[in-house]
Amino acid sequence: MRRADALSAIYAELESCVVVTIMGAVAAELYTLGHRPNFFYLEHAMGLASSMGLGIALSRPELTVVVLDGDGSILMNLGSLTTMARYRPPNLIHVVFDNEVLLSVGQSFTTATASGSDIAAMAAAAGIPRTSTVHTVEAFQQTFREALQAGELTTLVAKVIAEGPASYWIDVHMLENRFAFQRYFRSLRPPTGLG
Amino acid sequence: MPVSIAHSQLIYTALKQCDVRLLSALPETWLVHLVALGEADPDMTLVWLAKEEEGVGISAGAHLAGVKSAMLMQNHGLLASANGIVSLAQLYRIPLLMLVSYRGELTEPLLQALRIPYERLEEPHHVASRIRKAQTLAEAALRPVALLLCRDLMWEDDT
Asked: Which of A65, B21, B121, B137 pairs with A165 at a CA distance of 20 to 30 A?
């Protein structure tokens, strides 16, 4: 499946979620579908999107948090799978787009998933209660919707082709994105769930 | 040997007075009482990490979502967090309140190189005010700030 099509298939559902994406193709493709104040594109800090999502999910249990991660990114922070599993926030959906390469560097730089490392299996072994790997847009959309309904920590691995967007341009400066994202939370009722 | 329970309590109370409601930590001898206080506190969310850099992401998420947090780490944890501190917290102007056990001589040069303001916690009488000032600086300047937990504060005299 193409990642852009997969994003398009869940775009409507993302309106009511808090979304943290990794940098590069994922961010650009989501942005191209239409930016929203509840979308945060994590540039530079490769590997930390899932940790940010965990911090938000623990802080705001009344919100549904969706992390749009990548194979290269989660492989940099595999311990995060065990930390997410340990605290098991029911309001966190961790999507991993697995294209088996470090796309922004080049098609020839494969990640370990190209030689068989299985992210969903690692997530399950880490203790994440719901995990699956999907290969089609239809299966992705359905599994994502099921995860939203289930209200249980999920790692959903979507096998996608190694294809980037025509443009990586995002006309939202990273600090503009950061402050607007923070303001989005302030526009909701204050956090109550901690502790 | 003992790590000071009284001084750990002093630090913990100061963090509570700063409205810190989420603590991330990795097990470390000097921090045992501090994290035990966090674990016993129903109003505190204590997150045990696999690696300290995760704590940067967690604190960043908590900050944007409206929750004050602090990170407890060994000096090794500071080294392990350096990329996240620079590429997330500093680039995105995220306040971090980092309490670092001061166990290695590279700690201060590293903080200076990363342009992270820091103070030492050495004496019980300045613990509350220095924690308060560090958090105020982090929140006002939107940047990481470190407090060095020194041996004289964290350990009780054996004699």
From this structure: A65
Q: Distance (Å, rounded) from C-alpha B108 to C-alpha B142?
A: 21
pTM score of the predicted model: 0.96
Q: Which residues of B touch A42 (CB under 8 A)?
A: 88
Q: Taking the C-alpha atoms of A137, A171, A93 and B143 in order, what is their torsion angle to the nearest 10 degrees?
A: 160
Please give the interface size between A and B, counted as residue pairs whose CB atoms are below 8 Å apart: 124
Residue of A nearest to B38 (CA): A195
Query: Cβ separation of B43 and A54 shorter than 8 Å?
Result: no
Residue B93: closest CA among chain A residues belongs to which residue? A175
Half-sphere exposure of B41 (CA within 13 A, CB side): 22
Q: Which two tokens stand for residue A161?
A: 């082709």
Secondary element (H or E) of residue A97? strand A92-98
For residue A121, how many C-alpha atoms fall within 13 Å in the half-sphere facing its CB?
Answer: 4
- Phi (first) and psi of residue A95, to 5 degrees: -95, 135
Q: Give me the interface pTM, i.e. the ipTM.
A: 0.96
Q: Is B19 left (phi over 0), alpha (psi -120 to 50) or beta?
A: left
Query: CA distances (Å), B124 to each of A122, A159, B55, B147, in order?
Result: 45, 55, 26, 14
